[in-house]
Write a structure and sequence with these properties.
With 275 residues, the protein is mainly beta. It has two helices and 20 strands. The chain folds into two domains: 2-128, Elongation Factor Tu (Ef-tu), domain 3; 131-274, Jelly Rolls (Sandwich), CATH 2.60.120.860. It starts with a strand and ends with a strand.
């Protein structure tokens, strides 16, 4: 079985008589980037881009009579013709979702006067990866519970590493997913409150060697790295006043250090991603 959610992660109920039976999910598609060089045999491999992931939803309607069948059929059409993306989750792994859209037309397979099956093809949107229904700040603030459906038992969460707000200058950020979180295309907010620094305030991921350096003075302002947008206090974009680099989070432990200044709190908000 499967469940669907709107973009605010609110569950969308199915109409009475509509039974979600199964979800079929394929592997992630890749597009290889290659080129040829004069005088060199074969193709030069430049890696690949993730492209898409096939998702198919299989459901059945059970109507009271022929007229009810047609009404239920139309309700299914309306439910999946929302015009925008929605999230879908497998019922037995409810803590992870895929963001999908329905663009293809489909025709129900009518079995009897009252029964019909629907095979609805979806496509992933924005991301090809499963993502946690919750963010790391939700996990930190609510506390981990293995019995809570929201967190579950399969997301590789270490109950001793669920801290994502820090006040010390050396700390570890744990990424429970098996995908590197990259700010270019994924949710990754790093907020540092009340930064005091004369220059070169540095956030360094020692695990990856990446760092963001604030190359200007801060007298208690909040330093924010929200995706690809970097701001300080009321100044909304100060990318040119940094080393013009960003930080990613690899799977597992990411060892951090803060240099050349003080702060009140630094927090990391992202979602765990799974292939």
């Amino acid at each position: 079985m499967f469940k669907i959610y709107d973009l605010n992660m609110k569950e969308i109920p199915f109409p009475d008589g509509v039974i979600p039976l199964e979800i079929f999910v394929g592997s992630v598609g890749k597009e290889r980037v290659v080129d040829t060089v004069d005088g060199r045999p074969g193709a030069v491999d430049y890696g690949f881009n993730y492209t898409d992931r096939p998702v198919s939803l299989f459901l059945r309607i059970k109507a009271a009579d022929a007229a009810d069948f047609r009404l239920l059929r139309n309700e299914v059409f309306a439910a999946f013709d929302v015009g925008s993306a929605f999230y879908v989750a497998e019922a037995d792994v409810p803590s992870r979702v895929l963001k999908v859209v329905v663009d293809e037309s489909y025709i129900p397979d009518r079995l009897t006067e009252e029964y019909a099956d629907f095979d609805i093809n979806c496509r992933t949107l924005d991301s090809v990866f499963w993502e946690s229904k919750y963010t790391t700040l939700e996990l930190h603030d609510s506390g981990y519970s293995a019995t809570a459906e929201k967190y579950g038992l399969v997301d590789n969460i270490d109950d001793e590493k669920v801290k994502y707000r820090f006040t010390e200058s050396n700390f570890t950020v744990y990424n429970a997913g098996n995908v590197t979180v990259e700010p270019e295309s994924m949710l990754l907010n790093i907020i540092v409150n009340a930064v005091q620094s004369t220059n070169n305030f540095t956030i360094r991921n020692k695990t990856t060697g990446e760092e963001v350096v604030l190359k200007r003075e801060s007298k208690g302002s909040h330093f924010r790295i929200q995706g690809m947008v970097i701001s300080l206090g009321s100044i909304t974009n100060i990318f040119r006043d940094t080393n013009r680099r960003f930080i990613s989070l690899v799977p597992g432990d990411n060892e951090f250090e803060i240099l050349n200044g003080t702060f009140k709190e630094i927090r990391f908000e992202f979602k765990f991603l799974y292939k």
